[in-house]
Amino acid sequence: MKIEFPKVPSDVATSLEGATVVNIISFPVVVDGRRFLNSITFEALIKHFDAVSDAGADVKRAFDSGRERIHAVTEEQLTNNGARSVHLTARDF
To answer: C or N: which end of the chain has fewer Cβ atoms within 10 Å?
Structure first.
């Protein structure tokens, strides 16, 4: 399986987890030529990547500084889940 992370800026978005709105950073991945989005929660960036707040600039900065580790965990999950989109939370780190 060939996994690539395009060098594009991350994007702040929201997601629904049940009835709860969750703030996320979304980022693309290409697996065997197929492109799709993955995400990581603001909570994970605050707890594990030293984001000082949930402000967009702070979580983007934390994502950028932790990109290598985030991509490694994403790659591991993609390998284990049959290359389906990954949603990382604080529990994944």
So the answer is: N
